[in-house]
Amino acid sequence: MTIDDATKETVRRRANYLCEYCHSPERISTTRFTVDHLIPKSIGGNNDIDNLALACRRCNERRYNFVAGFDETTKTIVPLFNPRQQIWSEHFLWSVDGRQIIGITPAGRATCKRLDMNDERYPQGDSIQSARDFWVQAGLHPPEEDSQQPN
């Protein structure tokens, strides 16, 4: 069963039109973001609104059907960040220059790694960090609710 347009729009509005993983703004994307299944259908997930999250194509493709990742700090496998059950700012923060997402909990670190949120394999050139730098210069990033830095 596919997700109907009304449900997709509800998911988009609920996410404030931001990818619920990397907080990229949908308004600067050339395509609409996808609706991601937090528990993938391939492992028993469903189309219930509480199992859906807005995801940019980049995060959606990297998340694939994974629900857990490895946290290098604790050396454990942990569940990935779940935007229906967790608050983004409790697991992530932005680097001072706004180019990198820093995981501050096991779930945050594992999600950053699993979704390659900072293009760790491509430190130069066409990377998400380069795009974020442009978005910062244009005044479009980081999202207002994320821009608070801890003291």
Proportion of residues in β-strands? 5-15%
C-alpha termini separation: 47 Å
Mean pLDDT: 89
How much helical structure, as a percent, in the residues?
10-25%
List segments where confidence is low: pLDDT < 50 over at least 5 consecutive residues. 147-151
Main sheet attributes: strand count, strand direction, barrel closure: 2 strands, antiparallel
Within the largest sheet, what's the order of strands? Answer: 1-2
> Helices and strands: which structural class?
alpha+beta
Shape verdict:
globular
Radius of gyration: 15 Å
- Number-wise, the strands total 6
For the record, the count of structural domains works out to 1
**Helix/strand order, N-terminal first:** HEEHEEEEHH
Helix count from the secondary structure assignment:
4
Condensed summary:
The chain has 151 residues and is an alpha+beta fold. It contains 4 helices and 6 strands, in the order αββαββββαα.
Topology:
Layout: H1 5-14, E1 34-37, E2 52-55, H2 57-63, E3 68-71, E4 76-79, E5 92-94, E6 101-103, H3 106-114, H4 128-137
Antiparallel strand pairs: 1-2, 3-4, 5-6
Keyword list:
single chain; 151 residues; alpha+beta; 4 helices; globular; HNH endonuclease; endonuclease activity
